[in-house]
Amino acid sequence: YAFEPISLIRPPKAAKHTDPSAPDAVDNKSTALPDSADQKIPPSAGHAKLEDSIASNAGLEDITAGNARLKDVSSTKEEKAKAAGSKSNGDKLDASPAASDESSADSSDPSNLATSSSRKRPDASNVVMVTASSGNRGMLGIPHLKEQVYENRMAYANRHGYEFMWANISSYNLSHGEPIYWNKIPILQEAFIRYPGVEWVWWMDMDIIIMNQSLSMWDHVLSPEGMARNALLDTVINKPGGGPSGWKTLPTYNCSEVNFMIASGGWGMNIGNFLMRRSYWSEWLLDLWIDPFYIDKFKVFPENDGWTHMYRHHPIVRKHTLCTNQRALNAYPEFNPLGDHWHPGDHSVHFAGCGGNERCPGEWAKYWKLKESYEVPALVKQKLEDGTAEIENVEKGVGLPTGANKDAVAR
């Protein structure tokens, strides 16, 4: 594989899904945090080849912006060759500064990487927010929790032009009775198929409140400036329960190679809130993530431990993952000991590990009142009132876009 961005499981010219009764998003479980794999697994020959492939393609730009620049450079060279008349085959033509400015930047210089203009502001349909829940209408003992989450997500999606998909996680059960937490992976795989035009899939557990509705994900973390502001570089990653794990985040990154964004903090990395970019790397990662070995091995924080194991033991995973400071993507309420607490202005707050805690309903209500006020779209209000809100309405394989590869949905 050449793991250039923008191209996961994307059906050729698939029609964009516009069925108003389809996708809209929220979560499955909220775990404290993960990290339990101390045993290193020797990479298979296949993985070695994949890593070699990635290394050889490290300089590739994303397809949409990168290919356009390559065409510009090629056209410039042809024009110069004609203008120059006859030149010997050994002569080299220099691309014009306008065409080659970005490609000539030193990719080893973090200052260049953080300000690269190759990552353009996504259009209104370039992010899909995904949440999943079990079908049980109650959760965490919080009255009307799902209705509040629906309102919160839909208001944000409407404001910033994002898609929203709320999956019924029980419909994505795997074939051998695996714990429901692993259903997150086939849901992510299908999100890329359902929304062939999006570049980023943004997973949020249902126990998250978006507190700052004004702050788009582009301005917050997806733009080069957002990445530079929130990146956590060369920093020790903690283990569950706190304390150093012996592993660090990367010292540098390349904006065009970031395919996964996740926060790191108190108890390490928590996959309750993260972003994954469309790419062959992401397709490969999702396939690896659900390997039966991981499912059999990780029982405490199942899919979270699986992710942590991949990050620790596979350089190819670390290479394309940007860790952010915890408050950027995974701030906790003040009573939660898992890590850094939410401050006014932070994007969201995550009630991880809240199941069964008697404080949760009251704390949720408190933060619900603290969130930035916003206007709820009239249609969203109407759907909540008449019971037609798209809560847990997306089921595995149902209503996929015309031409979608249904065999690639999940295992």
In short:
Helices cover 34% and strands 13% of the residues. It has 411 residues and is an alpha/beta fold.
Secondary structure blueprint with pairings:
Blueprint: H1 45-56, H2 63-84, H3 97-100, H4 110-114, E1 127-133, H5 145-160, E2 163-168, H6 184-194, E3 200-204, E4 208-210, H7 217-222, H8 224-230, E5 236-238, E6 244-248, E7 260-265, E8 268-277, H9 280-289, H10 292-297, H11 302-313, H12 315-319, E9 321-325, H13 326-329, E10 348-350, H14 360-370, H15 378-386
Parallel strand pairs: 1-2, 1-3, 7-9
Antiparallel strand pairs: 3-8, 4-10, 5-6, 7-8
Structure description:
Strand 7 (260-265) and strand 8 form a beta hairpin. The chain is globular. The strands form three sheets. It has a six-stranded mixed beta sheet, sandwiched between helices. The two termini are 21 Å apart. The chain has helices at residues 45-56, 63-84, 97-100, 110-114, 145-160, 184-194, 217-222, 224-230, 280-289, 292-297, 302-313, 315-319, 326-329, 360-370, 378-386, and strands at residues 127-133, 163-168, 200-204, 208-210, 236-238, 244-248, 260-265, 268-277, 321-325, 348-350. It has 15 helices and ten strands. By secondary structure, it is of the alpha/beta class.
